[in-house]
Amino acid sequence: MNTVRYPTDRLVSLLEVQKVATMPQLKSALGTAVTFTVLRKLSPLGYRSSYSHCGTYYTLDSIAQYDELGLWSYRDIHFSRHGTLLNTAEVLVTQSPAGYWAGELEAVVQVVAKDALRQLAQTGRLFRREWEGRYLYCALDRTRRQEQWAARQAQPEAGDDLQAAKALFFSLLDEQQRRLYAGLESLQRGHGGQQRAAQLFGLAVDTVARGERELLDGQVLRGRVRQEGGGRPAVEKKRRKS
């Protein structure tokens, strides 16, 4: 029984000429009607499907000219080194200095991303915070999103120069220092200070209240971010019994 062979170079030749191709075009070039056969041949070549046009276009990583964000567009077809739109949005938001409004991200990826961002937030892959009637999407990691929130607050649209300077300074502090600084800001503001400080620095109100208590009680750890015993437990090395 003769084995049918499908030369991979047919796919490479097609994509080198066209840059991108649809699955029917790839099947025709390879001489098969089976999608899995095409994907199996593309896999070792390093291929990408578009995050636009419902993923109907394909290209090779060796052809795509990705920018510093890992994005590449050919005409109105868009590809990402990160794969799908969901994965791309997650990476771009997490890596961004100040998070993204939906409209800002859409301007970068050049497709509608609002539903993707909402899904990422609902499934716990991104964090979103309401501000002035819209959502700012930030990294899931708390420390990272606090840095993004502080950077966003420091932008001109966020308010006066003093508030921007406070937010910028806050982003340079460690965990304990941030908590104490937020507590100090709250104490200075008096009534409603905890809510305002929490909003300004992107912290939970309970964290601000804890910072207040630590300042008033003098419970400040010098030269240490967490209390002794905090963080992950030390890993004890096991020794073989003789």
Can you describe this structure?
This protein is 47% helix and 12% strand. The chain contains eleven helices and eight strands. The longest helix is centred in the C-terminal third of the chain and has 15 residues, at 175-189. It has a domain at 9-64 and 73-79. A three-stranded antiparallel sheet has the order 1-3-2. The model is unreliable at 234-239 (pLDDT under 50). The protein is elongated and about 80 Å long. The chain starts with 8 loop residues before the first helix and ends in a 25-residue tail after the last helix. It has 242 residues and is α+β, with helices and mostly antiparallel strands. The protein has helices at 9-18, 23-30, 35-42, 85-95, 102-109, 114-122, 142-153, 161-170, 175-189, 193-201, 205-217, and strands at residues 21-22, 47-49, 57-60, 71-74, 77-80, 100-101, 127-131, 134-138.
Task: Please tally the β strands and state the result.
Answer: 8
Tell me the radius of gyration.
25 Å
Spatial order of the strands forming the largest sheet: 1-3-2
Poorly predicted spans:
234-239
Question: What is the count of DSSP helices, taking H or I runs of 4+ residues?
Answer: 11
Order of helices and strands: HEHHEEEEHEHHEEHHHHH
Structural class designation: alpha+beta
Beta fraction: 5-15%
For the termini, the CA-CA separation is 62 Å
> What is the global morphology?
elongated
- How many strands, which pairing sense, and closed or not: the largest β-sheet? 3 strands, antiparallel
Overall average residue pLDDT: 84
Helix content class? 40-55%
